[in-house]
Amino acid sequence: MDQVPTRYSNNTNDSNLVLDLMFLRCDSEEINLHIIHPEWWLTSDHVPLTIIIPIADEHINICKHTIIKDSVEEVKFVNEVIALFSKVDASSISNVYDLDEVVSSWVDIVSRSWSRHSKPINITKHSKSWWNDKCSQDLASYRSSKSIKSWKTF
User: Fold this and answer.
1) pLDDT digits (tens, 9 = 90+) for 71-121
2) What is the rounded distance in angstroms from the CA atom of residue 47 to the CA atom of residue 55?
3) What is the 3-state secondary structure of 29-85?
4) What's the whole-model pTM score?
5) How far from 38 is each of 6, 9, 24, 84, 85, CA to CA, in Å?
6) Beta strands 49-51 and 62-66: pairing type?
7) d(C-alpha 33, C-alpha 152), whole Å
């Protein structure tokens, strides 16, 4: 392999050196290819070194159930839970066992109601259900100003 200088001396009496280090994976052709860029050398006494690290596109698919806020399904879910909660006899709780039984009943009610009224959705790396117009405006503001204040607001 040809030795390409990576450090250029400012002193004409000193020679240029192969000095910079990159720690690579010697057993991987894919991650062991680096490039020395003497043409990118500017005011520093070192030239840039680069490596391209391949990153595989990863498909993360998570399914969860959800109810859209302020939807008809949300109203039905809430009304059903309230109606069924009121039917659970919680008037004679006198010990921890009785309390556990009532709480377990309520958990079952919420779980069954949730299953009936929620819909499965797939969460992927492209899902951004939390993103809204304010996020877009704040991001646009940051991109135009590049200020730390705008970034913190975003």
Assistant:
1) 999 999 999 999 999 999 988 899 999 999 999 999 999 999 999 999 988
2) 25
3) CCCCCEEECHHHCCCCCECCEEECCCCCCCCCCEEEEECCCCCHHHHHHHHHHHHHH
4) 0.43
5) 7, 13, 20, 74, 74
6) unpaired
7) 38
